[in-house]
Amino acid sequence: MVERIGQRFGDYLLVRLLGQGNFANVYLGEDASRQQVAIKVLHTELSREDVEQFLAQAETISQLDHPRIVRVLSYGVEDESPFLVMQYVPHGTLRQRHPRGTRLPITTVVSYVKQIAEALQYVHDQGLIHRDIKPHNMLLRADYEVMLSDFGIAVVAQSMGYRVQKVQDFEGTILYAAPEQVRGRPRIASDQYALGVVVYEWLCGNWPFEGTVQEIASQHTLSPPPSLCKRMPTISHAVEQVVFKTLAKEPDERFESIQEFAKALERASRQEQPDFQAKQPTPNPLSPLSYLPTKTLSSDENAPSQATLLAYAGHADRVVSLLWSPDGQRIASSSLDETVHIWDAAMGEKVLTYQGQSLQALAIAWAPNGECIASSGGLSSEKVQIWDAATGRNCTGHANYNGHTEQVLAIAWSPDGKLIASASEDATVQVWNVMTGRTICKYRGHSSAVKAVVWSPDGQHIASGSEDKTVHVW
Hints:
Methylamine Dehydrogenase, Chain H, alpha+beta, 6-stranded antiparallel β-sheet, Phosphorylase Kinase, domain 1, about 475 residues, elongated, 3 domains, Transferase(Phosphotransferase), domain 1, 4-stranded antiparallel β-sheet
């Protein structure tokens, strides 16, 4: 290794070595005012043609401006060696903080993923790819919040002919590389796969795939990852399901975005919390209903009083939506415990518990005839499922719907029961045939998530309300 301590790169003097990597070494640098920066010097010398390519790539990286991204302050070439001057982040990397083999609690993993996803979503929204997600590139700033570094460094080095052959020198890219990246065709979803590998490693202490470079590359493209639950029995199936979705071989089978991955992991993590089981309701041999004494809401004797007639206590978490059946005899309640309960509105006796295949509370809507319920479903609640309100099974003669790309937030049946309008975080309202699941139309008039939808009494019009602060009638 070339001894560079004491050399000057641009306006900065190299003070000491901070770290060594497969693409570059990182030094602590200081300018004339003693301002400290991190200077990354790549392990290569550039031809004139390469210089232009490096400068163009460095300019793109320097435009990134986000509180969770390490800023590139300047860049250049010194004695044919390319370098980047970056914001100095003082508390090292997550790889240093959590050495290989460390197992982290799910709460810590969720916290890290949420912070990293913020940075990656910002970059992905600009059509850029990181290409080298790994714990070595996740830094801790002074307040111990996570920042992401080394955007595009891998592609800069590789485009200039730099290759690494030994896996011990290449603990990054190949260990975390998506199948399409192994084939040389990275996509935005490749960063999600890499973060999924990081999460897998944090949860069980091992990478999903190990061996030589060639063996690991082959496993990424051909082999399913070993079960997380078998490696760590304390990990819930819900968490494993989320991680394995990010590790899908096909990019289109992963989450729609890195933020959706972070949200899904956080939802699944609720099943890992120590007090999750403690929140289950105490079984009651008669009913989950508690009759309460009358409570007057006004001290004025002449004012009408209101009484609590009954309280249903069957859910294990907050109730987020309620609907009476059309005949007024049953109530459907949807909760953050990821269930829908159907119960007798007069006696409070539970008739049915519907466990949706989702990691969050379900949007629900009764069919006009009261026989079926439509609810959101799927891992991220992006689907609509129709089920029998008496049995909880798929409703005969009805189809499920898969047209949305993000969480379904509201559902409404047409008055004749033949169509459903479903509103989603994907900023659309989609109208579809309940018998065939065929899309009739998609309303795209809103600019943000649509959270409410209702039909007119004659079934000719629909009103939809959105986070864009508007209600549209169409």
